[in-house]
Design brief:
- The structure is a homodimer of 347-residue chains.
- Chain A has 347 residues and is of the alpha+beta class.
- Chain A has 2 domains: 12-156, 60s Ribosomal Protein L30, Chain: A (2-Layer Sandwich); 168-336, Phosphoribosyl-aminoimidazole Synthetase, Chain A, domain 2 (Alpha-Beta Complex), CATH 3.90.650.10.
- Chain A is built from 10 helices and 13 strands.
- Chain A has helices at 12-25, 72-88, 109-126, 177-194, 206-213, 219-227, 242-253, 268-277, 281-287, 303-306, and strands spanning 35-37, 44-46, 51-60, 93-103, 129-137, 143-152, 168-172, 234-237, 256-260, 294-298, 312-319, 325-328, 334-336.
- In chain A, the strands form 3 sheets. In chain A, strands 8-10-7-11-9-12-13 form a 7-stranded mixed sheet, with helices on both faces. In chain A, strands 3-6-4-5 form a 4-stranded mixed sheet.
- In chain A, helix 2 (72-88) packs parallel to helix 3 (109-126) and helix 4 (177-194) crosses helix 5 (206-213).
- The longest helix of chain A is centred in the middle third of the chain and has 18 residues, at 109-126.
- Chain A starts with 11 loop residues before the first helix and ends in an 11-residue tail after the last strand.
- Strand 2 of chain A pairs antiparallel with strand 3 (51-60) of chain B, so a sheet runs across the interface.
C-alpha cells in the first residue's frame, strides 16, 4: 500500500462550532434507557430510577498528556475511562458522559475526529451514552473535561468511608505498570530527540505501554463482586498511586492499615522494567499512578469468596487508627506510608 | 484606611491539589435535599425524584474572558450563571454544579480564592450545591469547566422543539446590553494601553457593564411562568444572540418565525451606547450574545396571561417553515435572518 503523504487537514473554522459538533457526534448512538434526551438541547434529560452518581476530571495538554507520544484516539479513550473508573469505584453502573474540549486552531478537523473516535470506542466498550458537552477554541493547548454519570441503589453504593478494623485490603489486577509505561515513553522521546532516525525499542514493553496509553476501568470487578456476593466496606480507584489512595480510605474511614510488600501484585514486566531503570518496584507500586485498578476493603468473612480469584489480591488489612498506615517489608520491617502521589502543581 | 500595597501571594504548590481543594471548598454548604454526598468521594451521590437535567460549558482565558478587565470573582459568578441559564431554559430547577479549573502557577492561592468566592456567591444566590470538580495545573491560561444539574417533572420540561405555527415568540428582560458592555470594556482597555494614567470613563454604562460582567440567569422567569400557568411550547436561553437562538428553535421545531424590529426590548443605555459606537441597535440585539435572557414560544391563548408583565415582551410569532425566519423592520420591510452568533474558532 502506498502511504498517503499528505493527509487531509481541514481547518476547524471551516466547520464552525455547530458544524464541528454535528461532525464529531454523528456516529454516537443512545444505548441507555435512562437517556431521554442527549445532545442537541440546552440540557440533556435523564431518567434515573436509582441514586445518580456524578464525577468529573480535567485533562490538560503538557500536564496530563504529551501529544508527542500519546495518539489522540488513545487520549480520547483514556479521558472517558478515567472518569468511568470513579463511577465504578462507588460500585455503581456508569450510564452517561459529557465531554468538553478546548482545542487550538492548529488541530485540523481530522485530529478532532481522531480524538472522538477514541471517545466513541470507550463509550461503546463501556455502554455509556455521550449526552452533551462543549467545543471551544483554545489559545494554546488541548484541554478535555469529562463528567461521568452513573446510577446505583442507594444501599449498594460503596464509599471511601466504611472500612472497619479487621477488614481485608484488596486490590484488583496488578499495579505500577502504567507508571513504568510512562517511563518507557519518556525515554523513547528523549532518544528520538537526540537521534530522529532511531527506531523505538518498545516491543518488550507492550503491556506497560497499553496500561499507560489505553487503560481500562474495572467495570468487570463490580460485576464480579456482585456475583460473588461480596459487598466492599469501602472502595476507591487507583489514580494517584497506592499510598495516596490508602491514605484516602484511612482518612475517610478513620482507621489505619497494614500493607504487606510481598503481597503487592506486580506484573513480571514491571519488575524487569524497574530493574532496567534502577527503580524499586515497591516504590513504583506505592507512588506510580494511573493504574485505575480498584482498591477496596472487605469483611474477613468474605475472604473465602474471593481467595481463589486471580483478578483479586489481598494485600493487607485494616487496623485501629492509632497504629497508622504502614508497610511491612519482605524483611519484616514496618515503615510508615506517606502520600507520594502526583501533584500537578509541582514542576 | 491605608491600602495594602503588598497583598498576600501564596503559591499554589505550597498547598498542593488536595490542600487547595480543602481551602476553596471550606465555605460551601449543602442546601439541596437531593444532594446525598457532595465533594470528597470518587463521585457525588444525588437522589433526584424527577428527571435529571445535565448541561456543561467551558470558559477559556483569551477566548471567553480577558483577565485584564474581568475580576476573578465576577468570572466565577458568571461561570456558574451561564450554566444554570441552560437548566432554566429547559424550565427546570437547578440543583447542583461541578466546577473544574485548570490554572497556571502564576495565580496565587488568593486569586483562586477570589474565583471561588464568586462561585460561592452564585451557588448561594441560586440555591445550588457545589458537589464536585477537579483542580489542576495549566501550562498557560485559566480554563473553567462547569456542569450544571437540575430536576423537573418529565411533563414540565420545555425543549427547543415544540413551537407550532401561530405561537407567539416571547423574550424576557432586554437584550444587547451584555454585548455593548463588552465594547465599553474593550474600548477602556485600548485607552488604558495608550495612556496608563487615564481614568476609566464608565459610570454612565454601569448597567451595560453589569450585564457583561455579572449576568443573572432567569430563574425568576421559570417561577413567574409557573405562577401565570403558562407552559412554553419551546424555549432556549440567549447566549449566542437572538438570531442564532431563533434559528435553533426553528430548526428543532421545524417552523419559521417572524420577528418585529419595533418590538425588540432594548434598554435606553443600549441605544445611547450604540449611537456612540456608531452601531445599529437591531444588529446588536440580533447578533450580540451573553444576555442570558429566555426566548420562548407560547400558545396564542396564553397571551392575556403575560401581556401586562413588564419582564416579558412579545417580539414575533411562529409561521410555517416555508416562510423562513424573517425580521420585519420599522419601515415594514421583510429581511431574512441569518445566524450571526459568535464562533470561538474564528479569529
Amino acid at each position: 500500500m502506498i502511504e498517503d503523504k499528505s493527509p487531509q487537514r481541514t481547518p476547524i473554522e471551516n466547520l464552525g462550532e455547530f458544524g464541528l459538533i454535528d461532525f464529531i457526534t454523528k456516529n454516537f448512538e443512545i444505548k441507555q434507557d435512562s437517556t431521554i434526551t442527549g445532545i442537541g438541547d440546552d440540557a440533556a434529560v435523564l431518567n434515573h430510577t436509582k441514586s445518580t452518581l456524578v464525577t468529573t476530571d480535567m485533562l490538560v495538554e503538557g500536564v496530563h498528556f504529551d501529544l508527542s507520544y500519546v495518539p489522540l484516539k488513545h487520549l480520547g479513550y483514556k479521558a472517558i475511562v478515567v472518569n468511568l473508573s470513579d463511577v465504578y469505584a462507588m460500585n455503581a453502573r456508569a450510564t452517561q458522559v459529557t465531554v468538553s474540549i478546548a482545542i487550538s486552531n492548529r488541530f485540523p478537523v481530522e485530529a478532532v475526529n481522531e480524538l472522538y473516535e477514541g471517545i466513541h470506542m470507550a463509550c461503546n466498550t463501556y455502554g455509556v451514552d455521550l449526552i452533551g458537552g462543549d467545543t471551544t477554541a483554545s489559545r494554546s493547548g488541548l484541554v478535555i473535561s469529562v463528567t461521568a454519570i452513573g446510577e446505583q441503589d442507594a444501599g449498594k453504593i460503596v464509599r471511601r468511608k466504611g472500612a472497619r478494623e479487621g477488614d481485608l485490603l484488596v486490590v484488583s489486577g496488578d499495579i505500577g505498570a502504567a507508571y513504568m509505561g510512562l517511563q518507557i515513553l519518556e525515554r523513547e522521546k528523549a532518544v528520538f530527540k537526540a537521534n530522529p532516525q532511531s527506531q523505538p525499542d518498545i516491543e518488550a514493553y507492550s503491556y506497560l505501554l497499553e496500561r499507560q496509553l489505553k487503560p481500562e476501568a474495572r467495570k468487570d470487578i463490580c460485576k464480579l463482586l456482585e456475583e460473588l456476593e461480596v459487598h466492599p466496606t469501602s472502595m476507591i480507584d487507583l489514580s494517584d498511586g497506592l499510598s495516596s489512595e490508602m491514605i484516602h480510605l484511612c482518612k475517610h474511614s478513620e482507621v489505619g492499615m497494614t500493607l504487606y510488600e510481598d503481597k503487592i501484585p506486580l506484573d513480571p514486566t514491571v519488575i524487569t522494567a524497574c530493574e532496567e531503570f534502577n527503580l524499586d518496584s515497591t516504590t513504583i507500586a506505592l507512588s506510580g499512578g494511573e493504574d485505575y485498578e480498584l482498591l477496596f476493603t472487605i469483611k474477613q468473612e468474605d475472604f473465602s469468596k474471593i481467595k481463589a480469584n486471580p483478578s483479586l489480591s489481598v494485600i493487607g488489612h485494616v487496623v485501629d487508627a492509632s497504629y497508622g498506615i504502614n508497610l511491612v517489608t519482605r524483611g519484616g520491617e514496618q515503615i510508615p506510608i506517606k502520600a507520594m502521589g502526583w501533584n500537578s502543581f509541582q514542576e
